[in-house]
Write a structure and sequence with these properties.
The protein has no helices and 39 strands. It is mainly beta and 469 residues long. The chain folds into 2 domains: 385 residues, Neuraminidase, CATH 2.120.10.10; 74 residues, Immunoglobulin-like. A 5-stranded mixed β-sheet has the order 1-24-23-22-21, with no helix packed on it. Strands 2, 3, 30, 31 and 32 form a 5-stranded antiparallel β-sheet that branches. Strands 4, 5, 6, 7 and 8 form a 5-stranded antiparallel β-sheet that branches. The protein starts with a strand and ends with a strand.
Length: 469
């Protein structure tokens, strides 16, 4: 039986914080090539390396590398056309460790293959296409790759029989720097049929995050292994939305490991509209101890395709969303458990549809590197965001609300100065209740949901959030 330390947690702290980010200028990094599909980013020893593709008039893979603050320019990975699997959410994947870089893809040849290019000089040059696994008459869809600390690659994909039957989430891995790979290692034999797996890594472990299909309940799970092995743990459910849908959502998760904790973000639709969620799960003890709706208010539209990176102190989640009749990209930064307000990180870009976002965190400089596609301009766009530390206006703003979530009433643990008056607001800012606090607050007249509470004694104002179940 799965254990849940917390059934549903939605950004408890609503303390008064200052949103303070350092944004770099927008840079278009494919000015000489009319190609921009599904950009992806990794870090090598001397800077960011961006990959993007061309899918018309011959498929090609490009990279562009930044050295000493300047882009070297678009570079073909292979002079030959590469018939890789492509689509809106499908295409090659890239990963690195130090100056070792792998680009992996599904080669739509006869027979089909799992193939890759390798670089040992930080992406300046790449090997010719190398076969990691020959599919023969079998099929595959969706691919991800990571490079473990010892330089060995792991590749994950969905494997099918000859007629797209018997879907199976699988991995293959190398122990000799890509010279050879293991046979297929099954991760899940009842996966969501077309949701690409996501590989997650940590200091000592790596894992596969995938969407399962248990009688049309489409939830995310993870299995992990020590870096030196391919001996995967039992599955741990990381998604508590219990979304039931007959068709495949075609949306993967993303995240990273810190010790035994998996930080992950994904799209689900347990209610009327697709939304982005995140959770923290103890993969060793099979416990979800934090579970959050990221950013949703009445009037928002479809959210999808989140990406996430960071460390135990700071995390950033980015996603696609339709607002004002166009697709834009939004982000949330979380520091020490405090959520900054969401923001569009495409400010300064032309007003066109933006999509296919990717990001990676550089811990030494506390910098998030982002790339995305401006579809209208057919441009690959790059910028960085460096979050400053959260500045809480006053230590008196710290409140403890308990129980939280609650069903009947809540209480406040805090030292107040004199009489206290409280206001309760819904998520769109409408005042619902205003009264004097006298040791507890009844929730009988509130429907289940998320609320803000604001308390006044003298100065300052104290704010937080709570959930009624």
């Amino acid at each position: 039986m799965k254990k849940y330390l917390l059934a549903f947690l939605l950004i408890f702290s609503f303390t008064s914080v200052s949103q303070s980010f350092n944004f770099s200028e927008i840079e278009y990094i494919n000015p000489n090539e009319s190609t921009s599909k599904r950009p992806r980013i990794c870090l090598v020893d001397d800077g960011p390396l961006v990959m993007f593709t061309k899918t018309t008039s011959g498929k090609q893979i490009f990279v562009n590398k930044m050295v000493n603050g300047a882009w070297l320019g678009e570079q073909l990975v292979s002079s030959d056309e590469i018939n890789f699997q492509a689509g809106t959410t499908l295409g090659p994947s890239i990963a690195s460790i130090g100056n070792v870089v792998y680009i992996a893809y599904i080669l739509e040849s006869t027979p089909k293959q799992i193939a890759f290019h390798k670089s040992i000089d930080g992406g300046l040059t790449f090997s010719e296409s190398t076969t990691a696994y020959d599919l023969g008459v079998e099929l595959a869809e969706g691919i991800d790759v990571v490079v473990l600390p010892d330089g060995n690659p792991v590749i994950a994909f969905i494997h099918y029989g000859p007629n797209w039957e018997n879907a199976d989430q699988v991995v293959i891995r190398s122990y000799d720097g890509g010279t050879s790979f293991t046979d297929l290692i099954s991760i899940d034999d009842s996966p969501c049929e077309c949701c690409t797996p996501s590989l997650v890594t940590g200091d000592s472990t790596y894992g596969v995050s995938y969407r399962d299909n248990d009688e049309n309940i489409r939830t995310f799970k993870v299995r992990t292994s020590l870096n030196e092995e391919a001996n995967f743990s039992s599955s741990v459910e990381t998604d508590l939305t219990e979304w039931e849908v007959n068709s495949c959502p075609v949306s993967s998760s993303d995240g990273f490991l810190v010790g035994d904790t998996l930080y992950s973000a994904w799209m689900s639709k347990p209610n009327a509209i697709t939304q982005v969620y995140m959770s923290k799960a103890d993969v060793q003890n099979d416990e979800v101890f934090e579970f959050s709706e990221i950013d949703y208010q009445e009037g928002y539209s479809t959210q999808n395709h989140p990406r996430m990176d960071g460390n135990s102190t700071v995390q950033m989640i980015v996603w696609e969303e339709f607002r004002e009749s166009r697709k834009d990209l939004f982000g949330v930064i979380i520091q020490n458990g405090e959520y900054e307000p969401s923001f569009s990180f495409t400010q300064g870009d032309s007003i066109e549809h933006r999509e296919s976002v990717d990001l990676i965190y550089e811990e030494g400089s506390n910098t998030f590197h982002l790339v995305y596609r401006n579809r209208g301009e057919n441009a690959v766009v790059y910028r960085t965001i460096s979050p400053n530390n959260l500045s809480v206006n006053s230590p008196h703003n710290q409140l403890v609300i308990y129980p939280n979530p609650a069903t009947k009433e809540i209480r406040i643990k805090h030292s107040f100065n004199g009489d206290v008056v409280y206001n309760i607001y819904n998520t769109v800012g409408s005042l619902l209740v205003s009264d004097k606090y006298e040791g507890s607050i009844s929730l009988d007249n509130l429907q289940a949901g998320v609320y803000f509470i604001e308390l006044f004694d003298q100065i300052p104002t104290h704010k937080s959030r709570f959930i009624k179940l």
